[in-house]
Amino acid sequence: MTESILDKAQASSASSSSASDSKPKLGFLGVGWIGRNRMEVIAKHNAAEVAYISDTATHNAEEALKSAPEATQVHSLEAMLHKPEVNGIVIATPSAFHAEQSSLALEAGKSVFCQKPLGRNLEETKRVVEAARQSNKLLGVDLSYRYTAAMQEVYKVVQSGELGQIYAIELVFHNAYGPDKAWFYEPKLSGGGCVIDLGVHLVDLALWSMDFPKVRKVQSHLYAKGKPISMAEGKVEDYASASIELDGNTHVQLSCSWNLPAGQEAIISATFYGTNGGVAFKNVNGSFYDFVAERYYGTKTEQLCAPPDEWMGRAGVAWAERVASGEGFNEEANEFVKVAEVLDKIYGR
Q1: End-to-end CA distance of the chain
Q2: Bias category Low complexity: which stretches (predicted)?
Q3: Do 82 and 201 have their domain in common?
């Protein structure tokens, strides 16, 4: 059976804990609630040293320093890049800056862990991956649902082959709220709406679980405030559906939204249907944080995994431990390009 990324992370953690002198020094660019959470979890797991913090919002930096009082506050990414002792940069800034900031850090010889999306489109994503390849530095993206215990169980079932021919994958991410920052609603800044914000996670989960097969065809419908739109109109979608045909005759159906009257805070799921049954990753009771894995046999359901699971920040810990072990560029970064390619097709780019 395929070794899971949690197994790999645990093995890496064991090896890195025995070599504490190799603990990398990291700079954290953007320490709003997501960036601060990633910083705190990496520090809690002793995976790296929080060396530098930078944020354009003074309040964010002050809050982060409360959690990492030994860190030094600087006022720009460049200031961190000029520190020879810094091994990596963790980026949690608005999407418009991800590609440029990641590329600058990689070109300066620093490993990078970036919030999704890595780029606003395929070209930006390719550019960052190429920068990582040229500098031979480890590039990670916070595709955090891969690291949930529930999705790991789903991945193992899909990889085992026990589902037989997987002919359908249903992906759903409805968020009853919309983003609270204005830049999310500007396509030039965000790269898109709910698809690039939420759908990116689900497209990644489907392709990753299936070993990134060739994508044959993509069709999509985008809506804003109940009306069909195209990206050329300068609007971002708040509801989208897409049909994705994969090699091997697998059909993927994606639905995602902001502000949907869903009757609960969120509906999140990735369900794989095969000739020998099904398996699903699902949120519980509208939660953004609690997930179960379920195996389906006709009308019977078997629960494979249930909360609690402290998965928030786990992807960053795994990346930091790989940096500590001296890992450079990994060809798995091409997966970020393959996901971006599907998103571009959904957007008609």
Answers
A1: 38
A2: 9-21
A3: no
